[in-house]
Amino acid sequence: MKEEGEPDLYEIDRFDRGVGWIAYPGETMERASHALAVPNEDGDDDVWVIDPVDAPGVDDLIAEFGSVAGVVVGLDRHERDAAALATRHDAPVYVPEWMTDVAGGIDAPVRRFDRRLADSGFESIRIRDSKLPPWQEVGLFDGETLVVPESLGSSSYFRGDRERLGVHPMLRLTPPRAALSGLDPERVLVGHGVGVLEDAGAAVENALDGSRRKAPGLYARTLRSALGI
């Protein structure tokens, strides 16, 4: 699922205010990272980096969009390379104030945020805050771009039949409808796989609506793949 060794930067999800990358494009998990540019009061662009996995060339890719203002951890188990990248760019790591199980494991200055991610223009969405199983996840939405670190993805093990996005296999029977339905974003960026840059609102609703109905087929396909059938 997760590839080790030398990373090989693969660019994804480029649009006028941001870009994404997958550091290990051959891995099944397709861990995706993103850099989003936001104008600041000085007329320059601040860059907010979401759940980064480091790779050669990442700093140059980010520099196309501005200077790093902060690095965000969107899931309690997505520390990834947040501390390394934040340290390199002399920026803090941002963690939701209610995310209790991650900040102690980050070797960099940590700042907490609540309903809004500092002055980025992104509102936070508490997608999931569960102890059994442990799962704390924050989404980000500025009215156009929706970032979903884990509950939605486009990697093969997320997607059911004819889905561009799928609900995480562990959440198929309890999809995060209350948190994510009705937002109608222009684009959706996810933590596993490439994002959806066209007709994104429909892709989210389709994923949520079909989550339970398509779960048996997805589970059966995953099992066949695991068994090599």
Can you give a write-up of this model?
It is a single chain. Strand 1 and strand 2 form a beta hairpin. The strands form three sheets. The chain has a seven-stranded mixed β-sheet with strand order 1-2-3-4-5-6-7. Strands 8-9-10-13 form a four-stranded mixed β-sheet. By secondary structure, it is an alpha/beta fold. The two termini are 18 Å apart. It is built from five helices and 13 strands. The model has no long low-confidence stretch (mean pLDDT 93).
Brief summary of the model shown:
The chain is an alpha/beta fold and 229 residues long. Helix content is 17%, strand content 30%.
- Number of distinct beta strands: 13
Report the radius of gyration as a whole number of Å.
Answer: 17 Å
Tell me what portion of residues adopts beta-strand conformation. Answer: 25-35%
Coarse morphology:
globular
pLDDT average, as an integer?
A: 93
Low-confidence segments:
none
Order of helices and strands: EEEEHEHEEEEEEEHEHH
Oligomer class: single chain
Number of helices: 5
Q: Can you give the helix content as a percent range?
A: 10-25%
Determine the N-to-C terminus distance. 18 Å
Q: Strand order, biggest sheet?
A: 1-2-3-4-5-6-7
